[in-house]
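Look at one such:
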Amino acid sequence: MNIKNKKLLTLSEQIVEQIKESIVEGHLKKGDKLPSEQDLAVLYQVSRPTVRDAIKILSASKLIYTKPGAKGGHFITDISAQSFIDDFSNYINISLVLEGFSINELIEYRRLFEVTTCVLAAKRRTEDDLIELKKLIPTPEDNLTNQEYFERDFDFHRTLAKSTHNLLFIITMEAITNVLKPMFQFVHGTPELREKLTNELLNIYKAVEKGDYELAEEEINRHLNRFERDFSIDGLPLENRKKITL
């Protein structure tokens, strides 16, 4: 006999699941106000403390927010892209510090993700995307400091993600960028290295401009190879840096 061990839900958790189901099915929409705690207790035939526990779970999950006052109550959250970005960034940061995964694993994930991003950008970019990408390619006349240069480089990668016109790609890129950017205050790039990187960004741009996704894949791989090979943070190779400061 094959008996499955399934976790039994508490009454509060059952209420949470039913409210989630109502959201998924479209019966509850962003901004909708939930019934009062008393009305929920009557609806679900439970005590008010049980309802309060369910409200706490929903609040912690950011599915609802609470407004005080006479016109207040519990409302379905309008979940923004920024909230996903912040949560994902925090998860990556904490995991690096607690060694849930290593910086090397993050760089490996970034490579796979960015290659796909660049391919999609080459297929989907608009004229406005190309204008924004071209603006971000550094020139000698810009006379950028190291920090300004790497800010520009990160912005180029973020704009590539925006050129996919896929919100999940944009969110993921923003989260990874939020984690990696602070590290680059320790990075010192020689003029020669910066020149090579700039040429690589230009080549990526040209491939995306042509819509040549195979060439775009080659160029982004070349760029990421240099990143992994030549950059060090605070004097340590990227693959050996186990922790960062939150």
Observations:
- The beta strands are 64-67, 73-76, 232-233, 236-237.
